[in-house]
Design goal:
Number of domains: 1
Oligomer: single chain
Order of helices and strands: HEEEEHEH
Helix content: 25-40%
Radius of gyration: 13 Å
Strand content: 25-35%
Strand order of the largest sheet: 1-2-3-4-5
Number of helices: 3
Largest sheet: 5 strands, antiparallel
Structural class: alpha+beta
Distance between the termini: 29 Å
């Protein structure tokens, strides 16, 4: 996961924290400065972008979410946790969708 953090930070993200076990989580700030939270658990992947505020209070608070998206693996609960490279690809995909839709 340290490699994932380094790759995302090279792309302009600021990563405040992450977990590698179920659930896989990454949180911090987008290159544009907005706080974000990524979560994968048993094939359900979500990405949240928030307005400014204390990131620790925002994470998982859907009422504070500016933008939210999720995808479900066709494997459902049997889906393996994503590798760091797959996690990075998912985060970048969600970032692209966020930029297109806002």
């Amino acid at each position: 996961m340290a490699e994932l953090k380094a790759h995302l930070e090279a792309d302009g993200f600021r990563i405040d924290g992450f977990t590698a076990l179920v659930p896989v989580q990454v949180w911090g700030w987008l290159p544009s400065g907005e706080p974000f939270y990524f979560r994968e658990r048993y094939g359900e992947v979500s990405f949240e972008v928030y307005d400014d505020g204390d990131l620790q209070e925002l994470v998982g608070n859907r009422d504070a979410t500016r933008w939210y998206a999720e995808v479900q693996s066709s494997e459902g609960i049997r889906a393996p946790s994503p590798s760091p490279a797959e996690t990075e690809a998912l985060i970048l995909e969600f970032l692209g969708r966020y930029r297109e839709e806002r």
